[in-house]
Amino acid sequence: MALFPFCKASSGPIRVSRIQLVLCCFLLSLIIYYLHGSRAAARVHPAHPIFHPLEMDRGRKVTDMEVHKGAESQTPAETPWGAPLVWGDSRHSASCRAKFAQREMRIGLLAFVVGTYAQFIRRFLYSAETYFLPGQVVTYYILTDNPRSLDPPVKLGPEREMKVVPIAELPGWERLAHRRMTLLGDAIRKSIDSETDYIFCADVDQEFVAPVRAEILGDLVATLHPELYGMPRNAFPYEDDEGSSAYVEEDEGDFYYTSEFYGGAVSEMYKLALACSLLILQDHADGITARGLEESYLNRYLIDHRPTCVLSPEYSWWDSDLSAQVPVHRLLSLGRQCQ
Ligand SMILES: CC(=O)N[C@H]1[C@@H](OP(=O)(O)OP(=O)(O)OC[C@H]2O[C@@H](n3ccc(=O)[nH]c3=O)[C@H](O)[C@@H]2O)O[C@H](CO)[C@H](O)[C@@H]1O
Ligand SMILES: [Mn+2]
Protein backbone atom coordinates (compact mmCIF):
# COMPACT_ATOMS: atom_id res chain seq x y z
CA MET A 1 0.00 0.00 0.00
CA ALA A 2 2.76 2.45 0.89
CA LEU A 3 4.65 1.60 -2.32
CA PHE A 4 2.62 3.77 -4.61
CA PRO A 5 2.83 7.03 -2.70
CA PHE A 6 6.62 6.42 -2.30
CA CYS A 7 7.08 5.85 -6.05
CA LYS A 8 4.94 8.78 -7.08
CA ALA A 9 6.82 11.19 -4.86
CA SER A 10 10.30 10.14 -5.98
CA SER A 11 9.94 9.96 -9.79
CA GLY A 12 7.92 10.49 -12.95
CA PRO A 13 5.18 8.19 -14.24
CA ILE A 14 7.41 5.84 -16.41
CA ARG A 15 10.11 5.32 -13.73
CA VAL A 16 7.42 4.72 -11.11
CA SER A 17 5.91 1.83 -13.00
CA ARG A 18 9.35 0.16 -13.44
CA ILE A 19 10.06 0.27 -9.72
CA GLN A 20 6.54 -0.93 -9.13
CA LEU A 21 7.15 -3.80 -11.49
CA VAL A 22 10.39 -4.84 -9.79
CA LEU A 23 8.86 -4.64 -6.33
CA CYS A 24 5.76 -6.52 -7.44
CA CYS A 25 7.91 -9.29 -8.98
CA PHE A 26 9.89 -9.52 -5.76
CA LEU A 27 6.70 -9.77 -3.68
CA LEU A 28 5.22 -12.30 -6.06
CA SER A 29 8.28 -14.55 -5.86
CA LEU A 30 8.16 -14.30 -2.07
CA ILE A 31 4.52 -15.43 -2.09
CA ILE A 32 5.26 -18.31 -4.51
CA TYR A 33 8.24 -19.41 -2.40
CA TYR A 34 6.12 -19.35 0.74
CA LEU A 35 3.23 -21.28 -0.85
CA HIS A 36 5.60 -23.90 -2.24
CA GLY A 37 7.19 -24.30 1.19
CA SER A 38 3.84 -24.89 2.89
CA ARG A 39 2.80 -27.41 0.28
CA ALA A 40 6.09 -29.29 0.63
CA ALA A 41 5.57 -29.35 4.38
CA ALA A 42 2.01 -30.57 3.99
CA ARG A 43 3.27 -33.53 1.96
CA VAL A 44 4.97 -35.01 5.04
CA HIS A 45 2.79 -37.92 6.06
CA PRO A 46 2.04 -38.78 9.62
CA ALA A 47 3.85 -42.07 9.99
CA HIS A 48 1.31 -43.94 12.02
CA PRO A 49 -2.33 -44.84 11.51
CA ILE A 50 -3.09 -43.45 14.95
CA PHE A 51 -2.95 -39.99 13.43
CA HIS A 52 -5.75 -40.68 10.98
CA PRO A 53 -8.56 -40.69 13.53
CA LEU A 54 -7.25 -37.35 14.73
CA GLU A 55 -8.32 -35.73 11.45
CA MET A 56 -5.54 -33.24 11.96
CA ASP A 57 -4.57 -30.70 9.39
CA ARG A 58 -1.22 -32.02 8.24
CA GLY A 59 0.12 -28.54 7.53
CA ARG A 60 -0.69 -27.61 11.11
CA LYS A 61 0.87 -30.81 12.39
CA VAL A 62 4.14 -30.09 10.65
CA THR A 63 4.15 -26.57 12.04
CA ASP A 64 3.82 -28.09 15.51
CA MET A 65 6.65 -30.43 14.73
CA GLU A 66 8.84 -27.53 13.66
CA VAL A 67 8.10 -25.81 16.96
CA HIS A 68 9.23 -28.98 18.66
CA LYS A 69 12.33 -29.40 16.50
CA GLY A 70 13.52 -26.05 17.79
CA ALA A 71 13.34 -27.31 21.35
CA GLU A 72 14.78 -30.70 20.53
CA SER A 73 18.20 -30.19 22.00
CA GLN A 74 16.57 -29.83 25.36
CA THR A 75 16.71 -32.91 27.48
CA PRO A 76 14.74 -31.89 30.58
CA ALA A 77 15.77 -33.84 33.66
CA GLU A 78 12.42 -33.68 35.37
CA THR A 79 8.70 -33.78 34.67
CA PRO A 80 6.48 -30.92 35.87
CA TRP A 81 5.51 -33.09 38.85
CA GLY A 82 9.10 -33.74 39.84
CA ALA A 83 9.62 -37.28 38.53
CA PRO A 84 12.92 -37.96 36.76
CA LEU A 85 12.74 -37.74 32.96
CA VAL A 86 15.38 -40.23 31.93
CA TRP A 87 18.08 -39.71 29.29
CA GLY A 88 20.53 -42.58 29.55
CA ASP A 89 23.72 -40.54 29.34
CA SER A 90 22.74 -37.89 31.88
CA ARG A 91 24.43 -37.37 35.22
CA HIS A 92 21.19 -38.26 36.94
CA SER A 93 21.10 -41.63 35.17
CA ALA A 94 24.70 -42.32 36.16
CA SER A 95 23.95 -41.61 39.83
CA CYS A 96 20.80 -43.71 39.60
CA ARG A 97 22.85 -46.64 38.28
CA ALA A 98 25.40 -46.17 41.05
CA LYS A 99 22.59 -46.24 43.62
CA PHE A 100 21.08 -49.45 42.24
CA ALA A 101 24.51 -51.09 41.93
CA GLN A 102 24.46 -51.48 45.73
CA ARG A 103 21.23 -53.49 45.66
CA GLU A 104 20.35 -56.97 44.56
CA MET A 105 17.44 -56.78 42.21
CA ARG A 106 15.55 -59.20 40.07
CA ILE A 107 14.09 -57.76 36.91
CA GLY A 108 11.53 -59.31 34.60
CA LEU A 109 11.05 -58.51 30.92
CA LEU A 110 7.72 -59.71 29.58
CA ALA A 111 6.63 -60.01 25.96
CA PHE A 112 3.71 -61.55 24.12
CA VAL A 113 4.50 -63.74 21.15
CA VAL A 114 1.37 -64.89 19.38
CA GLY A 115 1.00 -66.06 15.77
CA THR A 116 3.28 -64.43 13.25
CA TYR A 117 5.02 -62.30 15.89
CA ALA A 118 7.20 -65.37 16.57
CA GLN A 119 9.40 -63.99 13.78
CA PHE A 120 10.56 -61.21 16.16
CA ILE A 121 11.43 -63.21 19.26
CA ARG A 122 15.07 -64.11 18.55
CA ARG A 123 16.11 -60.63 17.50
CA PHE A 124 14.33 -59.25 20.58
CA LEU A 125 15.99 -61.70 22.99
CA TYR A 126 19.49 -61.47 21.52
CA SER A 127 19.36 -57.70 21.64
CA ALA A 128 18.06 -57.80 25.24
CA GLU A 129 20.91 -60.12 26.16
CA THR A 130 23.35 -57.51 24.94
CA TYR A 131 21.69 -54.32 26.10
CA PHE A 132 18.88 -54.86 28.61
CA LEU A 133 20.16 -54.55 32.19
CA PRO A 134 23.47 -56.24 31.32
CA GLY A 135 25.04 -57.94 34.33
CA GLN A 136 21.77 -58.02 36.28
CA VAL A 137 19.48 -60.86 37.31
CA VAL A 138 16.92 -60.91 34.50
CA THR A 139 14.04 -63.27 33.78
CA TYR A 140 12.31 -63.19 30.42
CA TYR A 141 8.63 -64.02 30.56
CA ILE A 142 7.47 -65.03 27.12
CA LEU A 143 3.70 -65.45 26.89
CA THR A 144 3.10 -67.44 23.76
CA ASP A 145 0.59 -69.62 21.94
CA ASN A 146 3.46 -71.63 20.51
CA PRO A 147 6.31 -72.49 22.92
CA ARG A 148 8.03 -74.40 20.12
CA SER A 149 8.78 -71.13 18.35
CA LEU A 150 11.52 -70.72 20.99
CA ASP A 151 13.33 -73.87 19.86
CA PRO A 152 16.26 -74.14 19.78
CA PRO A 153 16.46 -72.00 22.94
CA VAL A 154 18.40 -68.76 22.88
CA LYS A 155 21.63 -69.12 24.86
CA LEU A 156 21.37 -66.77 27.83
CA GLY A 157 24.08 -65.15 29.92
CA PRO A 158 24.77 -65.98 33.57
CA GLU A 159 22.03 -64.92 36.00
CA ARG A 160 19.54 -64.74 33.16
CA GLU A 161 16.71 -67.16 32.54
CA MET A 162 13.60 -67.57 30.45
CA LYS A 163 10.13 -68.67 31.50
CA VAL A 164 7.77 -69.62 28.75
CA VAL A 165 4.13 -69.13 29.71
CA PRO A 166 1.72 -70.87 27.34
CA ILE A 167 -1.39 -68.83 26.56
CA ALA A 168 -4.35 -69.93 24.47
CA GLU A 169 -4.81 -66.74 22.48
CA LEU A 170 -5.60 -66.04 18.88
CA PRO A 171 -3.31 -63.65 17.00
CA GLY A 172 -4.34 -60.18 15.90
CA TRP A 173 -3.44 -56.79 17.30
CA GLU A 174 -7.00 -55.70 18.13
CA ARG A 175 -7.93 -58.98 19.77
CA LEU A 176 -4.76 -59.10 21.88
CA ALA A 177 -5.11 -55.47 22.88
CA HIS A 178 -8.27 -56.55 24.74
CA ARG A 179 -6.46 -59.40 26.46
CA ARG A 180 -2.92 -58.32 27.28
CA MET A 181 -3.68 -56.44 30.51
CA THR A 182 -5.68 -59.36 31.92
CA LEU A 183 -2.95 -61.82 30.92
CA LEU A 184 -0.28 -59.56 32.42
CA GLY A 185 -2.22 -59.39 35.70
CA ASP A 186 -2.62 -63.20 35.74
CA ALA A 187 1.09 -63.76 35.07
CA ILE A 188 2.09 -61.34 37.84
CA ARG A 189 -0.27 -62.98 40.33
CA LYS A 190 0.77 -66.53 39.44
CA SER A 191 4.55 -66.22 39.44
CA ILE A 192 6.16 -62.88 38.61
CA ASP A 193 5.06 -61.43 41.94
CA SER A 194 7.27 -63.81 43.90
CA GLU A 195 10.08 -64.04 41.36
CA THR A 196 11.02 -60.46 40.53
CA ASP A 197 11.16 -56.96 42.00
CA TYR A 198 10.53 -55.06 38.77
CA ILE A 199 8.66 -56.09 35.67
CA PHE A 200 8.79 -54.41 32.26
CA CYS A 201 6.42 -55.07 29.38
CA ALA A 202 7.79 -54.69 25.88
CA ASP A 203 6.31 -55.23 22.44
CA VAL A 204 8.27 -58.08 20.90
CA ASP A 205 8.54 -56.28 17.56
CA GLN A 206 11.38 -54.23 19.03
CA GLU A 207 15.14 -54.35 19.26
CA PHE A 208 17.48 -52.98 21.92
CA VAL A 209 20.26 -51.12 20.15
CA ALA A 210 22.05 -49.38 23.03
CA PRO A 211 22.32 -49.96 26.79
CA VAL A 212 19.17 -49.78 28.88
CA ARG A 213 20.37 -50.02 32.46
CA ALA A 214 19.20 -49.43 36.01
CA GLU A 215 18.32 -45.78 35.26
CA ILE A 216 14.94 -47.10 34.05
CA LEU A 217 13.99 -48.59 37.41
CA GLY A 218 11.18 -46.98 39.37
CA ASP A 219 7.83 -47.76 40.95
CA LEU A 220 5.77 -46.79 37.93
CA VAL A 221 7.67 -46.26 34.68
CA ALA A 222 6.25 -45.03 31.39
CA THR A 223 7.92 -44.08 28.12
CA LEU A 224 7.24 -40.97 26.07
CA HIS A 225 5.79 -41.62 22.63
CA PRO A 226 8.51 -40.44 20.21
CA GLU A 227 6.09 -38.90 17.72
CA LEU A 228 4.19 -36.97 20.35
CA TYR A 229 6.98 -35.82 22.60
CA GLY A 230 7.17 -32.04 22.43
CA MET A 231 3.84 -31.77 20.62
CA PRO A 232 1.12 -29.50 21.96
CA ARG A 233 -1.50 -31.11 24.18
CA ASN A 234 -4.17 -30.94 21.44
CA ALA A 235 -2.10 -33.31 19.28
CA PHE A 236 -2.27 -36.12 21.85
CA PRO A 237 -4.60 -38.89 20.62
CA TYR A 238 -6.25 -39.45 23.99
CA GLU A 239 -9.69 -41.05 23.89
CA ASP A 240 -12.28 -38.39 23.09
CA ASP A 241 -15.47 -40.46 23.38
CA GLU A 242 -17.06 -39.38 26.65
CA GLY A 243 -18.72 -42.77 26.93
CA SER A 244 -15.40 -44.61 27.04
CA SER A 245 -13.67 -45.44 30.30
CA ALA A 246 -10.46 -44.22 28.64
CA TYR A 247 -11.95 -40.75 28.06
CA VAL A 248 -9.63 -37.85 28.81
CA GLU A 249 -10.94 -34.33 29.37
CA GLU A 250 -9.39 -31.46 27.45
CA ASP A 251 -7.64 -30.04 30.48
CA GLU A 252 -6.13 -33.38 31.55
CA GLY A 253 -2.89 -35.08 30.55
CA ASP A 254 0.77 -34.10 30.69
CA PHE A 255 2.38 -36.45 28.18
CA TYR A 256 1.30 -39.14 25.74
CA TYR A 257 2.94 -42.46 26.53
CA THR A 258 3.63 -45.40 24.25
CA SER A 259 2.38 -48.89 25.04
CA GLU A 260 5.54 -50.41 23.57
CA PHE A 261 7.56 -50.20 26.79
CA TYR A 262 6.43 -49.60 30.35
CA GLY A 263 7.01 -51.18 33.72
CA GLY A 264 7.74 -50.72 37.37
CA ALA A 265 7.71 -52.40 40.75
CA VAL A 266 5.75 -55.63 40.57
CA SER A 267 3.05 -54.47 43.01
CA GLU A 268 2.49 -51.24 41.03
CA MET A 269 2.34 -53.14 37.77
CA TYR A 270 -0.24 -55.48 39.19
CA LYS A 271 -2.42 -52.50 40.13
CA LEU A 272 -1.96 -51.06 36.65
CA ALA A 273 -2.82 -54.33 34.90
CA LEU A 274 -5.89 -54.86 37.05
CA ALA A 275 -7.20 -51.30 36.64
CA CYS A 276 -6.58 -51.23 32.88
CA SER A 277 -8.19 -54.62 32.33
CA LEU A 278 -11.26 -53.41 34.22
CA LEU A 279 -11.46 -50.26 32.07
CA ILE A 280 -11.14 -52.40 28.95
CA LEU A 281 -13.81 -54.85 30.17
CA GLN A 282 -16.17 -52.01 31.00
CA ASP A 283 -15.86 -50.56 27.49
CA HIS A 284 -16.22 -54.02 26.00
CA ALA A 285 -19.49 -54.48 27.89
CA ASP A 286 -20.68 -51.10 26.56
CA GLY A 287 -19.66 -51.99 23.02
CA ILE A 288 -17.02 -49.23 22.95
CA THR A 289 -13.47 -49.46 21.64
CA ALA A 290 -11.03 -46.70 22.49
CA ARG A 291 -9.18 -45.28 19.47
CA GLY A 292 -5.72 -46.37 20.60
CA LEU A 293 -7.03 -49.53 22.29
CA GLU A 294 -4.64 -50.63 25.03
CA GLU A 295 -2.56 -47.47 24.69
CA SER A 296 -5.64 -45.34 25.42
CA TYR A 297 -6.35 -47.18 28.69
CA LEU A 298 -2.71 -47.06 29.66
CA ASN A 299 -2.69 -43.30 29.11
CA ARG A 300 -5.91 -42.89 31.09
CA TYR A 301 -4.36 -44.83 33.97
CA LEU A 302 -1.15 -42.80 33.84
CA ILE A 303 -3.11 -39.56 34.11
CA ASP A 304 -4.72 -40.82 37.30
CA HIS A 305 -1.45 -42.32 38.56
CA ARG A 306 1.43 -40.21 37.35
CA PRO A 307 4.58 -42.25 36.63
CA THR A 308 7.34 -41.94 39.21
CA CYS A 309 9.88 -42.29 36.39
CA VAL A 310 9.39 -41.15 32.80
CA LEU A 311 11.64 -42.53 30.08
CA SER A 312 12.55 -40.21 27.23
CA PRO A 313 11.92 -41.33 23.62
CA GLU A 314 15.45 -42.82 23.69
CA TYR A 315 13.61 -45.84 25.11
CA SER A 316 10.98 -46.02 22.39
CA TRP A 317 11.94 -44.75 19.01
CA TRP A 318 11.10 -45.49 15.44
CA ASP A 319 12.01 -44.02 12.13
CA SER A 320 9.36 -41.53 11.17
CA ASP A 321 9.16 -37.92 10.03
CA LEU A 322 7.48 -37.08 13.30
CA SER A 323 9.76 -38.85 15.75
CA ALA A 324 11.65 -36.56 18.09
CA GLN A 325 15.40 -36.43 17.65
CA VAL A 326 17.11 -37.89 20.69
CA PRO A 327 20.78 -38.17 21.68
CA VAL A 328 20.77 -42.00 21.57
CA HIS A 329 18.35 -44.61 20.26
CA ARG A 330 18.12 -47.42 22.80
CA LEU A 331 14.96 -49.34 21.96
CA LEU A 332 13.72 -49.39 18.39
CA SER A 333 10.24 -50.39 17.32
CA LEU A 334 10.46 -52.42 14.15
CA GLY A 335 6.68 -52.64 13.71
CA ARG A 336 5.99 -48.93 13.84
CA GLN A 337 8.75 -47.81 11.47
CA CYS A 338 7.77 -45.93 8.34
CA GLN A 339 6.83 -48.41 5.65
C1 LIG B 1 -1.55 -47.60 19.49
C2 LIG B 1 -0.91 -47.93 18.19
O1 LIG B 1 -0.12 -47.19 17.66
N1 LIG B 1 -1.29 -49.09 17.63
C3 LIG B 1 -0.84 -49.59 16.35
C4 LIG B 1 0.44 -50.40 16.48
O2 LIG B 1 0.31 -51.18 17.59
P1 LIG B 1 1.41 -51.74 18.47
O3 LIG B 1 2.80 -51.45 18.05
O4 LIG B 1 0.98 -51.31 19.82
O5 LIG B 1 1.01 -53.23 18.21
P2 LIG B 1 1.77 -54.52 17.81
O6 LIG B 1 1.22 -55.00 16.53
O7 LIG B 1 3.23 -54.39 17.94
O8 LIG B 1 1.20 -55.47 18.96
C5 LIG B 1 1.63 -55.33 20.29
C6 LIG B 1 2.37 -56.59 20.74
O9 LIG B 1 1.42 -57.63 20.94
C7 LIG B 1 1.98 -58.85 20.54
N2 LIG B 1 1.24 -59.36 19.37
C8 LIG B 1 0.40 -58.58 18.65
C9 LIG B 1 -0.34 -59.11 17.62
C10 LIG B 1 -0.19 -60.49 17.32
O10 LIG B 1 -0.82 -61.02 16.39
N3 LIG B 1 0.67 -61.23 18.04
C11 LIG B 1 1.40 -60.73 19.06
O11 LIG B 1 2.17 -61.42 19.68
C12 LIG B 1 3.44 -58.58 20.20
O12 LIG B 1 4.22 -58.68 21.35
C13 LIG B 1 3.36 -57.15 19.74
O13 LIG B 1 4.63 -56.54 19.78
O14 LIG B 1 0.73 -51.22 15.34
C14 LIG B 1 -0.35 -52.08 14.95
C15 LIG B 1 0.07 -52.89 13.72
O15 LIG B 1 1.17 -53.71 14.04
C16 LIG B 1 -1.58 -51.27 14.61
O16 LIG B 1 -1.32 -50.42 13.50
C17 LIG B 1 -1.97 -50.40 15.78
O17 LIG B 1 -3.00 -49.48 15.39
MN1 LIG C 1 4.60 -52.84 18.40
UniProtKB/TrEMBL annotation:
User: Any one Gene Ontology biological process term?
Assistant: carbohydrate metabolic process
Annotated active site residues, numbered on this chain, are E295 (nucleophile)
* NADP recorded as keyword: no
Is this entry keyworded Cell membrane?
Answer: no
Subcellular location as annotated: Membrane
- Residues reported in the UniProt entry to bind Mn(2+): D203, D205
Question: Which positions bind UDP-N-acetyl-alpha-D-galactosamine?
Answer: F112, V113, V114, Y117, D203, V204, D205
- A Gene Ontology MF term for this entry? metal ion binding
Cellular component per GO, a single term: membrane
Main localization, broad class: membrane
Cofactor entry: Mn(2+)
**Recorded topology in the membrane:** Single-pass type II membrane protein
Q: Which UniProt keywords apply?
A: Glycosyltransferase, Manganese, Metal-binding, Transferase
Recorded hits in SUPFAM superfamilies, A to Z, give: Nucleotide-diphospho-sugar transferases (SSF53448)
Cofactor note text: Binds 1 Mn(2+) ion per subunit.
Q: Which InterPro entries match?
A: Glyco_trans_6 (IPR005076), Nucleotide-diphossugar_trans (IPR029044)
Per UniProt, where does an alpha-L-fucosyl-(1->2)-beta-D-galactosyl derivative bind?
H225, E295, D319
Q: Which family does it belong to?
A: Belongs to the glycosyltransferase 6 family.
Entries under PANTHER family matching the protein: GLOBOSIDE ALPHA-1,3-N-ACETYLGALACTOSAMINYLTRANSFERASE 1-LIKE, GLYCOSYLTRANSFERASE-RELATED
Protein name (record): Globoside alpha-1,3-N-acetylgalactosaminyltransferase 1-like
